[in-house]
Design goal:
Helix content of chain A: 25-40%
Helix content of chain B: 25-40%
Oligomer: heterotrimer
InterPro entries (chain C): CO_DH_flav_C, CO_DH_flav_C_dom_sf, Diverse_Substr_Oxidored, FAD-bd_PCMH, FAD-bd_PCMH-like_sf, FAD-bd_PCMH_sub1, FAD-bd_PCMH_sub2, Mopterin_DH_FAD-bd
Distance between the termini of chain A: 51 Å
Largest sheet of chain B: 5 strands, mixed
Strand order of the largest sheet of chain B: 2-1-5-3-4
CATH topology of the largest domain in chain A: Aldehyde Oxidoreductase, domain 4
Protein name (chain C): Xanthine dehydrogenase family protein subunit M
Strand order of the largest sheet of chain A: 3-5-1-12-9-10-11
Structural class of chain A: alpha+beta
Number of domains of chain B: 2
Shape of chain A: globular
CATH superfamily of the largest domain in chain A: Aldehyde oxidase/xanthine dehydrogenase, molybdopterin binding domain
CATH class of the largest domain in chain A: Alpha Beta
Pfam family, one (chain C): FAD_binding_5
Strand content of chain B: 15-25%
Organism (chain C): Pseudonocardia bannensis
Radius of gyration of chain A: 27 Å
Number of strands of chain A: 28
CATH superfamily of the largest domain in chain B: Beta-grasp domain
GO molecular function, one term (chain C): FAD binding
Distance between the termini of chain B: 63 Å
CATH topology of the largest domain in chain B: Ubiquitin-like (UB roll)
Chains: A alpha+beta (794), B alpha+beta (168), C alpha+beta (293)
Order of helices and strands of chain B: EEHEEEHHHH
Number of helices of chain B: 5
Structural class of chain B: alpha+beta
Shape of chain B: globular
Radius of gyration of chain B: 17 Å
């Protein structure tokens, strides 16, 4: 297990572009306001849809009196669950037999299961009029209110109301799995530490909310759906299946997508209901989610209860762990990845960069009357990393070991990789210790400790928090199986050189801010030997891009990048073959550089790519059997694992509990870097989302099941004044398994930042014996941790 | 539905007059986007927190979701579409692409207008002043690092342009 | 999130606005900056049939510094007030507090008078008004009356203004030369409404505290003055304000409040931190006053 050199069949051509901080080619349209998102699209005779949503967490729908609406069927239309009863419900795709299924009608038929569950859709010629009608109709829905189930605890209490009566339980999954010999580990332990941790429920909150525009051309029998989705092809398959349409009669377009972060990966019920309504009405119908609706009804994420027992030696060696991971799935075990998306992924990723050789995991998920939990950047991994890194710091503090030192003692060395974790994750390569050491050197750890001590004497409480992470990337079939939620997946790209010698790259991954048009163009430019300006990347339209699953789980750079590199290599060969005929040379002796093909060592014997491409298409003397210069390639990669370390320096106002972040240093190792500028910015953005979860963000529900965070005045996402400067440093351990050694990245910051912040606060408040048991670290909770008010559980 | 009375309103947007027939309740953001056809201005929250809909009203950065179009009659409105001239990015736009100050682009229009307003009032801001000046514009992608950097670069470019204008 | 229908009235005079308001006091809303009202309308939490718009009225945006007073017209924008050198000279406390009101775009449109009339108990302007003291000029079709700051705030989002009255101006008393002030609030994020905040204004005469005004906001249904703390301080020599006295003031401040819990903080937190901020308010105000004396 020492082979870390990229094998030749995995090599990609890396020349002038890969690895350079190239400016983004897509920027001008965003900067000039000409980029078009779903809300910006308008079609002739377009109608506007507005949802009527349940005001009750748990209720039976008795009646919807549509007769209150003047102009019904003429200027206003209404669709209820009854109208869509023939549309099959949405259901998860996880291949686990003992997971109970919770079919979700795209508009509720009998029962509503959270505040915001869809009850009806009102359609009118204008958004304002549609909202007027929706307001009227909301008052004309009769409910039988049922007892709410506001929490996992309530869900499993004796006599709890059932969200799905036929299941006979609200707990839809519980499974224990043993890895290694925990009995032996605990028997050998000097100390056992325990924690009960509540990871907060927060969410993606992209700047662009969800939105769908659907149009059915009856004469063509063609449905076109524009949706703010991360997965246009997958959505096409789901829409075709749900609506009973032949898939070739459905076209899905993801126009500009204003951020997704995983939330726009699963199929929203609205993405089925709106096309259905457009089919019925024969007119274009647009639904744009507003922010209030988004905070009520869009999927939420990350809430978990994690109970740990950790067996350690007096030297701080982690001998074994028993962990219970309980997910709060909300009203439905949501489609695609189910309610296990949090607890199962947390359990499988728990060991992180450490040598933990015995681990019992118990994974459970319950239904509650809240908006469902689904994907959001760092699924499961965030909660696992948070609880593990907090626990490691607590153990270090208890044992009197420095937090850096305890990590050194347990961390996997790079020469131990590839390494299969006790949960079956095959870490391909990495720089776990190197990242930690570089981070500590960058923050000047010893100097910080000296300053911390000095300022503490003045009554100032500074803290330093470390959070090391391993991030599973390259989500193909292998990664999802190693994550514990098996789901087949792969992607495809088509690279085509046209007769004039310019290049079109059509990819099935679907960008929503990550700069794919730039990164893929860099790969294709190097692969073909052309200028980036001669490459155009297209995506997001099922009509013009090859089939594939789209963009989520840090997979695009690895999978999309590899498919572009492979297809480019094919096309390069095709070009060389034609050029060889033209130049009467051996293809192996030819090189392509800056769009010119020449005989190696004899640059005067050359043809431009334009000349060769023209000949390839039109010159029967030299063209090959297949004149088109094109190739489509697929990739279903082996799992890869990025890694890194985030260090947060913070100060706590011991009188008010306000936490101020002073500085953040992040080390990121994602293997081969395509565009360092983009990588750096992805790390920064992810970290700030993690800061949101650590300090500000939480979807709060009252004991009555009512959501209390339904505006941006209550659901608090970080602003420019809440974040300190973030320094990002790169290490590069190419994957020995993946094409080009690319690993993918983008989630590590979110995964690591909450623990780094929590550890910084706990470090600052070490004199008070503070132990962080939940997030966010609002000032109220911080004062409780210090014992200045009430109890930490209050 | 009973139709609400409409009125004719004349708006001056990026120097051009637009006459629109609208209900009194239509927000400036909706009228810019739907009646004038300038969809660069975005709606991110419609309750005055996110800043995506920021436009300049007589030079001041305001939230166009919290102003009714009828209230903007007679005012000079500037939107993102008016920044570039003949396809050439202005110095703020250029600074944002040079410094990777945007990812998904949804907050960008509002951000650019806020930066213009900030630099008009404070041409040489400190990093703290930039952060405070932009804290009414949410961004979910960048973590603000490169937005702050872009703004500082735009300020420097503006300064350079002013001194070369003085020199010539 | 689109507002329900209403009729917009672009008023050209106060009289026109008062006439409209008088015709349908309960169905009408006065709008100046609209930065609190319009979000409520967009969320359909407010649905006035008539919107009486003061913005077009000439001369209503005055910023007038008088002898011992500062008068702001109903449409004087927060940003204009914040940037006014005259205001900073007369009432630096107001300038400092304005920097905490919302965000730049909000202050460009929002008005000081509007914020006071909206009477959010966690907002900055009502607390500053209550601390400085002064009066609201309330006009109706029947005439004009003055409402003193201490009589103005009734309850959560409720003031002494009648539905047919318009606050055409607010006059602040500006402190004299030997006073010092402090403004501080704890928020979840910069620009948010306060979880809890303090406004303090201490005046020294002959080395002793001659006047003490302390207001807590975010701790009750309205901003509240702290008479027990104020009484503790008046007459005390500046040099005698020591840690014990500050601790006692903090206890008195906490004891004066019965704040409730919400998603941002518990009542316990607010009570505790009200004490912390009160002590800080006294200390900093005294430093400022001593420096000027």
């Amino acid at each position: 297990m020492s082979e870390t050199i990229i094998e030749s069949h995995l090599a990609i051509r890396k020349d002038k572009w890969i690895g350079k901080p190239t400016k983004r080619v897509e920027d001008p349209r965003y900067l000039t306001g000409t980029a078009r998102y779903v809300a910006d699209l308008e079609l002739p005779r377009m109608l506007h849809a507005v949802y009527v949503r349940s005001p009750h967490p748990h209720a039976r729908i008795l009646s919807v009196d549509t007769s209150v609406l003047p102009g019904l069927g003429k200027s206003v239309w209404v669709f209820t669950g009854q109208d869509l009863r023939d549309v099959p419900p949405l259901i998860d795709h996880v291949a686990l037999d003992n997971l109970l299924r919770t079919p979700q009608n795209v508009i509720a038929i009998d029962k509503v299961r959270f505040v915001g569950d869809a009850v009806a859709v009102v359609v009118a010629g204008d958004r304002y009029a549609a909202e007027d009608a929706a307001e009227q109709l909301s008052a004309a829905v009769e409910y039988e209110v049922l007892p709410p189930v506001p929490s996992v605890e309530a869900a499993n209490a004796p006599g709890a109301a059932l969200l799905f009566d036929d299941l006979g339980t609200n707990e839809i999954y519980r499974q224990t799995e043993k890895h290694g010999d925990t009995e032996k580990a605990f028997a050998a332990a000097d100390r056992v530490f325990t924690t009960r941790f509540h990871h907060n429920r927060y969410g993606a909150a992209p700047m662009e909310t969800r939105g769908v525009l659907a149009n059915y051309e009856r004469s063509e029998q063609q449905l076109t759906v524009w949706s703010s989705t991360q997965m246009p092809h997958f959505l096409r398959s789901v829409i075709a299946g749900q609506l009973g349409l032949p898939e070739h009669r459905v076209r899905v377009i993801a126009p500009e997508v204003g951020g997704g972060f995983g939330q726009k990966m699963c199929t929203s019920p609205e993405e089925i209901a709106i096309p259905f309504i457009a089919l019925q009405l024969g007119r274009p119908v647009k639904w744009i989610e507003d922010r209030h609706e988004h905070l009520l009804a869009a999927t939420q994420a990350k809430e978990e209860f994690i109970n740990l027992e950790v067996a350690v030696s007096n030297e701080g060696k982690l001998l074994g762990v028993r962990g219970e991971f309980i997910g709060d799935g909300g009203g439905y075990s949501f489609n695609t990845e189910s309610a296990l998306i949090e607890p199962a992924l947390a359990a499988k990723s728990f060991p992180g960069p450490y040598r933990i050789e015995a681990f019992d995991e118990e994974v459970a998920a319950s239904l509650t009357n809240k908006s469902p939990v689904a994907a959001y950047r760092g699924v499961g991994w965030t909660a696992a990393n948070t609880v593990r890194e907090i626990m490691i710091d607590e153990i270090a503090r208890e044992l009197g070991i420095d937090p850096v030192e305890i990590r050194r003692r347990n961390m996997l060395r790079s020469d131990e990789l590839p390494y299969r974790s006790v949960t079956g994750q095959l870490y391909d390569s990495g720089s776990y210790l190197e990242s930690l050491e570089l981070a500590m050197k960058t923050v000047d750890y010893d100097a910080f400790r000296t300053m911390q001590e000095r300022l503490r004497e003045q009554g100032r409480y500074l803290g330093l928090g470390i959070s090391s992470y391993v991030e599973q990337t390259a989500w193909g079939s292998d990664s999802s199986a190693q994550a514990g939620t098996p789901l087949p997946s792969h992607d495809n790209s088509t690279v085509t050189v046209d007769p004039s010698g310019t290049v079109t790259v059509a990819v099935s991954t679907s960008c929503h801010g990550q700069g794919h048009e730039t990164s893929y163009a860099q790969i294709a430019a190097d692969g073909l030997g052309v200028d980036m300006a001669d490459v155009k990347v297209v995506f997001g339209d099922t009509l013009t891009s090859p089939y594939g699953l789209g963009t989520y789980a840090s997979r695009s750079a690895v999978i999309g990048g590899a498919t572009v590199a492979r297809a480019s290599a094919d096309v390069r060969e095709q070009i060389l073959k034609v050029a060889a005929n033209m130049l009467e040379a051996n293809p192996d002796d030819l090189v392509i550089e800056d769009g010119t093909i020449s005989v190696a060592g004899t640059p005067s014997v050359s043809k431009t790519l334009a000349e060769v491409a023209y000949a390839a298409y039109w010159d029967s003397e030299v063209r090959s059997d297949e004149p088109m210069l094109t190739s489509t390639r697929f990739y279903d990669p082996p799992a890869t694992y990025a890694n890194g370390c985030v260090v947060v320096l913070a100060e706590v106002d011991a009188d008010t509990g306000v936490v101020t972040l002073d500085r953040i240093v992040a080390i990121e190792d994602c293997g081969t870097v395509i565009n360092p500028m983009i990588v750096e910015a992805q790390v920064q953005g992810a970290i700030v989302q993690g800061i949101g979860g650590a300090l500000f963000e939480q979807f709060v529900y009252g004991d009555d099941g009512q959501p209390l965070t339904t505006t941006y005045m209550d659901y608090l996402i970080p602003t420019s004044t809440d974040v300190p400067p973030i320094e990002v440093l790169s290490l590069e351990s190419p994957s020995p398994f993946s094409i080009g050694g690319i690993k993918g990245m983008g989630e590590g910051g979110q995964i690591a930042a909450p623990a780094a912040v929590a550890n910084a606060v706990a470090d600052a408040l070490a004199p008070f014996g503070a132990r962080v048991r939940k997030l966010p670290l609002a000032p109220d909770y911080v004062l409780r941790l210090m014992g200045k008010i009430g109890s930490p559980n209050g | 539905m009973a139709t609400n009375p409409k009125q004719v309103v004349t708006l001056t947007v990026n120097g051009e007059a637009h006459e629109v027939l609208i209900e009194g309740r239509r927000t400036l953001a909706d009228v810019l986007r739907e009646n004038v056809g300038l969809t660069g201005t975005k709606l991110g929250c419609e309750h005055g927190v996110c800043g995506a809909c920021t436009v300049l009203l007589d030079g001041s950065a305001v939230r166009s979701c919290l102003i009714f179009a009828v209230q903007a009659e007679g005012a000079e409105i500037a939107t993102v579409e008016g920044l570039a001239e003949d396809g050439k990015l202005d110095h703020v736009q250029q600074a944002f692409t040079d410094n990777h100050g945007l990812q998904c682009g949804f907050c960008t229009a509002g951000m650019l207008m806020s930066v213009h307003a900030l630099l008009a009032e404070n041409p040489d801001p400190t990093e703290d002043e930039i952060r405070v000046g932009l804290n009414g514009n949410l961004c979910r992608c960048t973590g603000y690092q490169n937005i702050v950097k872009s703004t500082a670069a735009a300020a420097a470019a503006g300064k350079a342009a002013r001194s070369s204008a003085q020199a010539s | 999130m689109k507002p329900p229908p209403f009729t917009h009235h672009a008023c050209r005079s106060v009289e026109e606005a008062l006439g409209l308001l008088d015709a349908d006091p309960d169905g009408s809303k006065v709008i100046s900056g609209g930065q609190s009202l319009v979000p409520m309308m967009n969320l359909r939490l407010a649905s006035p049939a008539h919107l009486v718009d003061l913005n077009p009225i000439p001369g209503l945006n005055g910023i007038d510094v008088g002898r011992g007073t500062l008068t702001l017209g109903a449409t004087a924008r927060q940003h204009a007030v914040e940037r006014s050198a005259d205001v900073t000279a007369a009432a630096p406390l107001l300038t400092a507090a304005l920097a905490h009101v919302g965000h730049p775009q909000i202050r460009n449109r929002g008005t000081v008078v509007g914020s006071i009339c909206h009477a959010d108990p966690a907002a900055e302007m009502p607390a500053v008004f209550l601390t400085l003291g002064g009066e609201v000029t309330a006009q109706s079709a029947a005439g004009t009356r003055s409402i003193a700051a201490e009589d103005f705030f009734d309850s959560y989002l409720t003031t002494a203004l009648e539905p047919n009255e318009i606050a055409t101006a607010v006059t602040f008393n500006t402190p004299n030369g030997s006073s010092g002030w402090h403004f501080e609030e704890v928020t979840r994020r910069h620009g948010d409404f306060a979880i809890i905040g303090v406004v303090a204004l201490l005046t020294l005469a002959d080395g002793r505290i001659s006047d003490a005004r302390l207001t807590i906001f975010g701790g009750a249904a309205t901003p509240v003055r702290l008479p027990a703390v104020e009484q503790l301080l008046v007459g005390v020599a500046a040099g005698d304000v020591d840690a014990d006295l500050l601790a006692q003031a903090a206890r008195e401040a906490s004891a004066a409040l019965r704040p409730g819990d919400d998603i941002h903080a518990s009542g316990d937190y607010r009570r505790h931190v009200a004490g912390v901020l009160t002590a800080r308010g006294i200390r900093t105000s005294l430093e400022r006053a001593s420096a000027r004396a």
